[in-house]
Amino acid sequence: MRVDVWSDVVCPWCWIGKRRFERGLALLGDGAPPVELRWHPYLLDPDAGTDPVPLREAYAAKFGGPERTAQVLASTQAAARAEGLPMDFDRGQVRVTTLPAHRLLWLAAREGDAGRVGEALFHAHFAEGRNLADPEVLVAAGEAGGLPGGRVRTLLAGNEGAAEVRAAVARAQAMGIHAVPTFVIDGRFAVQGAQAPDLFAQALRQAAGEAGPGDGAAGAGADCGPGGCRV
């Protein structure tokens, strides 16, 4: 069974949603179908550049001040830690473009393990406060997914993969994907947001022809609220 996932590596609910999907798949036990995950890019903040801006500062401008920002980050961090994820918004995260990270994921899908690279990028940003536009951070994430460091540096030194990533983002927009994470199971069942594991399990059962929810879509994200990150 193929599962397509649209995600951005600076979307906290994308990391939470990934973990909840994994838990939902585990709920199926021995009856779980073989799953092929395919990761697709989305630029949650397409105007971000390579110069780092403190994340709390950027969020304060977006959410209407530091107090509201603190509330949003605290609730998101609590949800992540409930899933066993070491999210820590006191590590000095910065706002930067994620285009280089998506180019790395594009390469990993062809020459390495995109799942491991994605997990390394999530961890670097949310648990360690690393700058995802820093080439050395990207090299380390690439190596976590089996890519030689030299190959990653060659990628980052040029424009390889940039056109493909931008085209993929445009296709997602044309498909009507405007919130991340979005999971499409077997090309038929869409689940938006970091839904509960049992909902993912129901959608997987339905896609496999078993009992499940009555419709083909579930949930909708809010702007980095409890369902996901709206773009």
Task: Provide structural commentary.
The structure is a single chain. The protein is about 50% helix and about 15% strand. The protein is α/β, with parallel strands linked by helices. It has a domain of about 100 residues: 3-Layer(aba) Sandwich (Glutaredoxin). The chain has a 5-stranded mixed sheet with strand order 2-1-6-7-8, with helices on both faces. A two-stranded antiparallel ribbon has the order 3-4. A two-stranded antiparallel sheet has the order 5-9. The chain is globular and about 50 Å long. About 5% of the residues have low confidence.
Q: What structural class should be given to the helix and strand makeup?
A: alpha/beta
Low-confidence stretches at least 5 residues in length (pLDDT < 50)?
Answer: 211-224
- Please state roughly what percent of the residues sit in beta strands, choosing from under 5%, 5-15%, 15-25%, 25-35%, 35-45% or over 45%: 5-15%
CATH class label of the domain at 1-42 and 177-231: Alpha Beta
**Relative helix content:** 40-55%
Shape: globular
Name the strands of the widest sheet in spatial order: 2-1-6-7-8
Pfam family, one: DSBA
Protein name: DsbA family oxidoreductase
Domain DSBA-like thioredoxin: 2-204
GO molecular function, one term: oxidoreductase activity
Which tags fit this structure?
231 residues; alpha/beta; Glutaredoxin; two-stranded antiparallel sheet; 9 helices; globular; DSBA-like_thioredoxin_dom; oxidoreductase activity; DsbA family oxidoreductase; Thioredoxin-like_sf
